[in-house]
Write a structure and sequence with these properties.
Elements lengths: L3 E3 L8 E3 L21 H4 L5 H4 L6 E2 L24 E8 L9 E9 L9 E6 L7 H4 L13 E6 L15 H9 L4 H19 L8 H14 L5 E6 L1 H12 L4 E7 L8 H23 L11 H17 L2 E2 L5 E2 L1 H11 L6 H12 L4 H11 L10 H11 L7 H14 L4 H6 L26 E8 L6 H10 L4 E9 L8 H13 L7 E3 L1
Parallel strand pairs: 6-7, 6-8, 8-9, 9-12, 12-13, 13-14
Antiparallel strand pairs: 1-2, 3-4, 4-5, 5-7, 10-11
Helix pairs in contact: 6-7, 8-9, 9-10, 10-12
Amino acid sequence: MSRFLTLRTASLLSAALLLAVGATACSGDKGGTGLRTSPALATTVLPTSLTSQKPDWQPCPAASTAQGGDGKAPGKLPDGTAWECATVQAPLDYARPDGDTIDLAVIRAKAMGGGKRIGSLVFNFGGPGASGVATLPDYDAAQSLRSRYDLVSFDPRGVGNSAGVTCLSDKETDERRARTRNLAGTAEENKKTAAACAKNSGKVLPHVDTESAARDLDLMRQVLGDAKLNYFGISYGTELGGVYAHLFPEKVGRTALDAVVDPTKDSVQEALGQAKGFQLALDNYLADCAKTPGTCPYQSPEDGHRRIADLLAKTGRQPLPTTSGRKLTQEDATAGIAQLLYSEEMWPSLSVSLSDAEQGNGDNLLTMADALNGRDDKGHYSTMQAANTAISCADTKQRLTPQDVAARLPEFRKASPVFGELTAKGLLSCTDWPVTGKSDTPQVSAPGAAPIVVIGNAGDPATPVEGARTMAEKLGKGVGVLLTVKGEGHGTYGVNQCATKAVNEHLLHGRAPSNGTVCA
């Protein structure tokens, strides 16, 4: 699978994680990625031509294919406000701020009034690789925050219309997904993909790391005219927010981090945690499913586990047909199941999809796997997966071999009979990457920063709740404020009423919940 990508097309928990499928994604040491600040960059002064630029806001066109758009421009908001789009120039290389620049695609909806405007609230929906420009207009949960904020999001560097990374063609990506591979074959496929990324996007690959994206956030803060950055990060966006807080603690405004990445785990630990998290979500789905025999395809959780294992083994031997003419492979079947576990609201669809697949129809699971891989119904891919790989591999020096992963396979299979092997394959994504990544652990300590609300969900399959506890601790005493939700799914805002109310109180009124608050 890959890292933490988007569910926009399935249920709009916005942009969450990409599991760790060995498609084109790099599980790459994100939780333990090297983002230690160099003294030179810590004191970098950007030219006024960048910090004082005035974006030319215009009505937004339809999101591009690279952004994962559907060909339709975002509609006006209920009060008649139009979505506006612009670009912001940023240094390609922050070590050379007077050198080449890239354009960052930005979107906003102005505050609607009804309260004293605070400033801009910037969203990052995760991935890495999710287009904020394509996602924000569909994120209805945020609309109440317009009472005091301009809602803003962006395509991070390497994503969508912000110098988006491109690797394989659409046809080549389809062909890659259709092939069944062992570990050595996966490594060889990854090597070819890495060469294509270098050929098509070589200039930007060294500069799509998370630290550079955090510096982009501070540049946007200045361009938007805000004294401090008010920020809402989801999934990988929580890591980006933590790195920003470390680099610019005095510039931290009101911040919420939902579905939190553990900043202390290396790539192997993170992937293993994801395998366990998705297995837990599957266990919880099957336990719930068995309570509704009229709609559940399984007689018991045990029956479900056995039949899902049989289904995946069958697709491994003989991929299932679909009405599109494409085949549902074992990897795509597993990815489709994972996609439908991101939200409890999608569990009924999972029941239908699994039942259809048992009857020989792979349509639904392939559609979900396509969503996870950023493929639209016309066969075009966004930059989502390519960007996920590029950002992840820029953030880590770790390069595992097939032998390294083979040695870990028993541990992964034990953690998850369904997702373990596929998650382990994702560890090979950065093996032959053309750029040397960073190392060490991401620095998120932020002494002196304003309180940051950190939300973890007990049943989160992609970012286990322990990550929120660790992030709150590492941000520092008086900075990280932990809020735990006893629920299911990846992300809580707009889903859990208690958590949503607590976040709104913090962002709109500056009243953070008590550290350790628990929402049922």
